[in-house]
Amino acid sequence: MNIVKQEQYEPNFESLAKHNAAPEWFQDAKLGMYFHWGPYSVPAFGSAWYPNFMYIKGNRFNKFHEANFGPIEEFGYEDFIPMFTAQYFDAEDWADLFQQTGAKFAGPVAQHHDGFAMWDSDVNPWNVADMGPKRDITGELFKSLKKRNIKTIATFHHARNGQRNANNPEHWGKNGYNSHYPYHPDLPTSTTDQKLRKLFGNWETIDAFNQYWLDQVNEVVDKYNPDIIWYDSWLNMIPEDIRNQMSAHYFNNGVKNNQEVVICRKQDDLPLDYSIVDIEQGGRRDIHPQPWMTDITLGESRWMYVEGHKYKDAALVVRNMIDVWSKNGIVLLNVSPRADGVINEEQRAILKDIGAWLNSHGEAVYGTRPHTIFGYGTASAGDGSHGGQSSKVEYSADDIRFTVAKDKKSMYVFFLGKPEAGKKVEMRTIGGYHRNIPPSPIKRVSVLGTNVEVEWQLTTESFYLTIPEKGLNNIATVFKFELE
Hints:
This protein is of the alpha/beta class.
């Protein structure tokens, strides 16, 4: 590992910009996994915004809560914590599952908007080691991941935890756009209890909250040395000088531990000179010169475990991931454990299918780089909910994607479905000796993961591939072009 030595990063752009935003290991990794899991998993209803909406009178979350748990004045969000037992959580099993799926990095949502820390914290009294499971979930999992040489990620969503609506009556009792918990003098979230105020982000000044935000990130960095830290939206609500302090501290910790660390963010709230952009539930429409990330969930739309919620099938997930990889992207895939620590069999079955496909076709994924074009096809990409294109595009064998080995001795052609055996497919896009041809002359074409050789022809006008009878894959068939 060749790390450019930096004596000490300072909390300013000139110094931080010397950091390599996307080290080679990150570009090679292609797939990571994380999970939304916390006290909000207990009601298993609605979404991970349950802690917010339960306090807004009259909506469906509030009605569900009061029907099943009682009035919010008598049963608050904090009362879910003893019910968050995680009795079946097994870090070794989860690490095995992530490894079998094909993840090269993994870790927890270290803290969601709800103010509850999923690590053993001395800063935040509302933490998983002192309450609920009374176990260091982050520490146990990181230990198991590192045993398997899987790199680690911790994601932070708590910039939105700080209450910023107390001085704005227009937002009282509503889903205030800049805070997670609604504020109203009559709501339990406006408590004066000094400990409970920390859970609700209800600090006497927002400056005090900003320091609390920073202290928690620094604690995770110092205790667990994550290879990646990742930020949800609203990091821009944290003052720039605090963000600079966070970045410098993290980079310096990486240098100390001989780690090439990565910061990912969603909005334009850290410079791309030293951070990676993430597009939630979406992807780019074309290749981007800088590596980027998308976070997607195995659920049809929800991030936490919701009773009865449906999941995407493996074919849909894999085909959309191939599209991301062909455009210089990395995927962060979310799973949804139950409050008791079980990742259910329905999700495990999908992950097993994803892992089986990657086990056979990983050569075309890990360590590859984009071709001069990402591919072509007929599928309608649709609009992503947070920018870019949709993460649930219905691809078919008429959609083609490309990747190239780093040494440029191989090129990989993905059919996003099972092509028709015997069909002669014209690929004018990569033919004709003057278009987006492979990096060097083709020696041999085969079905990746098999010994099936494929008939091909390159002319001055086009390229032709004849689909063989054997070796085709229902999820995505990959052809390997061996190059000179």
